[in-house]
Specification:
- By secondary structure, this protein is of the alpha/beta class.
- It has a single domain (about 5-125, about 155-195), classed as Rossmann fold.
- Helix content is about 30%, strand content about 15%.
- It has helices spanning about 35-45, 65-80, 115-125, 135-145, 175-185, 190-195; strands spanning about 5-10, 50-55, 85-90, 130-135, 150-155, 170-175.
- Strands 3-2-1-4-5-6 form a 6-stranded parallel sheet, sandwiched between helices.
- Strand 4 (about 130-135), helix 4 and strand 5 form a beta-alpha-beta unit.
- Helix 1 (about 35-45) runs parallel beside helix 5.
- The structure holds magnesium ion (MG) and zinc ion (ZN).
């Protein structure tokens, strides 16, 4: 068995319990199965990235500096599970927002793949050998647009189910622990191209 090149995780509703617009580090809780998943990822010795839309910046719900405390707490939560968080990528944009310069169209707000492409470029990982785990189909689309393998945590957070070839997850799991088991079971030589449906 060979580890994947990297694992990308959505934050809200995937890695953490979803608390809308939360930037209080003390209110950040690992989602069901996430602690076990991070332990499995740590054993795989694979880089882990958090990839998160934070439109609350553009919408004026919190200043961008608030995300520094969130990022610091993420590093602590990983460490508590024996894992290392390699980097966090935020999209602070929303074209319908009110706060400049964040109220603009961008290529990083999921379902666009910009954060994944940037992480791959900055850390030299091959996207076809990576996994992206998220709780809504916009995550799946971002992952597929980037050429990653994708896992949907089907925990009730997706409510719209707008379909399409780019929104079809490679794997569906009920929680992070089962997603981690699926990742561990897959050999990295099975690329997204080979298992794409
Ligand atoms: Mg989410
Ligand atoms: Zn963006």
């Amino acid at each position: 068995m060979t580890a994947p090149a990297a694992i990308f995780l959505d934050k809200d509703g995937t890695l953490l319990d979803d608390v809308p617009y939360n930037v209080d580090p003390d209110a950040m809780r690992l989602a069901p199965g996430a602690r076990e998943a991070l332990s499995i990822f740590a054993a795989l010795a694979v880089p882990i990235f958090v990839i998160s839309n934070q439109s609350g910046v553009a919408r004026g719900r919190f200043p961008i500096e608030s995300l520094n405390g969130v990022e610091a707490r993420l590093h602590e939560l990983f460490a508590e599970c024996g894992a290392t968080l390699s980097a966090v990528y935020w999209c602070p944009h929303d074209a319908t927002g009110t706060v400049e310069p964040y109220n603009q169209e961008c290529d990083c707000r999921k379902p666009m793949p910009g954060m994944l492409l940037r992480a791959a470029r900055e850390h030299g990982v091959v996207l076809a050998d990576c996994w992206f785990v998220g709780d809504i189909l916009d995550d799946i689309e971002a992952g597929r647009r980037a050429g990653c393998r994708t896992i949907l945590i089907d925990n009730g957070n997706e409510t719209v189910w707008r379909g399409g070839a780019l929104r079809e997850p490679h794997v569906v799991a009920t929680d992070m622990f089962r997603a981690a088991l699926a990742i561990r079971a897959m050999d990295k030589r099975v690329s997204a191209r080979e298992i794409a449906r």
